[in-house]
Amino acid sequence: MRTLRDIRALENVPVLVRIPQVNNEVRLQSALPTIDYLRKNHARVILATHISGKGTESAEPMYHMIKEKIRGLKFSPVAIGPGARAAVRDLLPGEVLMLENLRRNVGEEKNDPEFARELASLADVFVQDSFDTCHRKHASIIGVPELLPSYAGLSLESEVKELSKALKPKRPSLAIVSGTKFSTKEPLLRSLLRSYDQVFVGGALANDFIKAKGYSVGTSLVFDEGQESIKKLLAEKRLLTPIDAVVAPLHGKRSEGRVTSLEDIGSNEAVLDAGPKTSALLETYVKKAKTVLWNGPLGYFEGGFTDATYALARSIASAKTYSVIGGGDTIAAIEDLKISDRFSFVSTGGGAMLDYLADGTLPGLEALR
């Protein structure tokens, strides 16, 4: 891929920069170096982004968040059309304009050629710096690079560099993967089992594995899919699953949780967190590892079942290991604990990170090539 540093001329050049949805400090800090580089080289910078949701949300709250770091940041209430083009024309060298939420236009997610052309018409150069969406086949990810000279931003370049290291870990190595549907994680788990010494399955994803071992999981979230494939994976000695759990009534409060063995999960209870024995087991492997890869909380994090996730975060942060972590709730956990700076690399990607680790590339990266 060509990177930002390969752009020969930037003086007064309108540059369209795809940035991630900035909803935490990690993503904010990751977006700034590319923007600062372009400003210092006197480009006219146009920021394009998205807001997840129904497609009606505005990017204006995100604009106010970024404005605290970029003085004079301007906002366009539209992403394309005469209004957006006029706002770009008014930019002076070194100034920055942020466009409205791209997903307000259905053409973004459909990769509509006309929408891509309208977006590309705003600039002479395109810079992709939104790794978190590079697994999507959207207009601003794969459509615009067909129409403009395109380059990887500094954050994207860093993501590829660090995650490439995670594809070939120093040993002994440990990967921790959580999530929900097994069908979406099976390729990743098989890939990791080829390169990591231990692969731990956590979160709701682990419920299907616990069930496949013959334990009752009560009212836990399960998908009852791929049980034969799961049983084959369980035969892998390198695959680890929880050995105890914190259970409570489904959607119960944290105060209702109790620690139990896997044999003693009640029929009216749901597994909502990994137990202390599981946390101790993971800590043992973390201390030995030279590489730790982690994506996803170990429990119902948004419901307050955070103990195992926090314990794992502290273990990795204090270990002398190369650590790569990612995922929204994972980042939220380390920000809660104020230990974000104690990991080797924090990826801005959730699904994109997992897809890259499974496939070694992403549609958005291929578009740049």
Protein described:
The structure is a single chain. The protein has 369 residues and is of the alpha/beta class. It folds into 2 domains: 4-157, Rossmann fold (3-Layer(aba) Sandwich); 168-359, 3-Layer(aba) Sandwich (Rossmann fold). It has 15 helices and 15 strands. It has helices at residues 25-40, 60-67, 82-89, 106-109, 113-120, 139-143, 154-167, 182-195, 205-212, 227-234, 276-288, 307-318, 328-336, 351-359, 363-368; strands spanning 14-18, 44-48, 74-75, 96-98, 125-128, 150-152, 173-177, 198-201, 239-240, 244-248, 258-261, 270-274, 291-295, 322-326, 345-346. The strands form 3 sheets. The protein has a 6-stranded parallel beta sheet with strand order 3-4-2-1-5-6. α8 (182-195) packs across α14 and α11 runs parallel beside α12 (307-318).
SSE layout:
Blueprint: E1 14-18, H1 25-40, E2 44-48, H2 60-67, E3 74-75, H3 82-89, E4 96-98, H4 106-109, H5 113-120, E5 125-128, H6 139-143, E6 150-152, H7 154-167, E7 173-177, H8 182-195, E8 198-201, H9 205-212, H10 227-234, E9 239-240, E10 244-248, E11 258-261, E12 270-274, H11 276-288, E13 291-295, H12 307-318, E14 322-326, H13 328-336, E15 345-346, H14 351-359, H15 363-368
Parallel strand pairs: 1-2, 1-5, 2-4, 3-4, 5-6, 7-8, 7-13, 8-9, 13-14, 14-15
Antiparallel strand pairs: 10-11, 10-12
Helix pairs in contact: 8-14, 11-12
Properties at a glance:
15 helices, alpha/beta, Rossmann fold, 369 residues, elongated
**Biggest sheet architecture:** 6 strands, parallel
| Beta-strand proportion | 15-25%
At the fold tier of CATH, the topology name of the largest domain is Rossmann fold
Give the strand tally: 15
What's the CATH H-level superfamily name of the largest domain?
A: Phosphoglycerate kinase, N-terminal domain
Instruction: Quickly count the helices.
Output: 15
Mean pLDDT: 96
* Cα distance spanning the termini: 5 Å
The H/E string reads EHEHEHEHHEHEHEHEHHEEEEHEHEHEHH
Estimated structural class: alpha/beta
* Helical residues, percent: 25-40%
Order of strands, widest sheet: 3-4-2-1-5-6
**Shape field:** elongated
Give me the Rg, rounded. Answer: 22 Å
Low-pLDDT segments, ≥5 res: none
CATH architecture of the largest domain: 3-Layer(aba) Sandwich
Using the coordinates above, name the CATH class of the largest domain. Answer: Alpha Beta
How many structural domains in the coordinates? 2
